[in-house]
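User: Predict the structure for this protein chain, please.
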Amino acid sequence: QGQLVESGGGSVQAGGSLRLSCAASGYPLRTYCFGWFRQAAGKERERVGGINANGETHFATSVKDRFSISRDNTKNILYLQMNSLTPEDTAMYYCAARRCSSGEYHYWGEGTQVTVSS
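Assistant: Here is the predicted structure, written as structure tokens:
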């Protein structure tokens, strides 16, 4: 059983940037597919974006011009770079993994909180 550990969350003013990290022990970045999700208080969880095993990324419309995903295959760490943050980006952010043949994410981290103030 692997482990996903997010870090890098915090408080930032609107217009600022944060980079979240996801240390993916036991889930090789080149053989699993990964997603970043977020859940704001009182709202349903939404997918922010993801990266396939071949490195192809995809994003929700609300963030695609501001967020990017990268990975360090040597360290097995996934990153979510978030720019031009707005208060609407305030949420708990989660990293998740799935076997690429599966459409469902079975493996989740504990999350890291991002708070954006106006």
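The mean pLDDT is 96.
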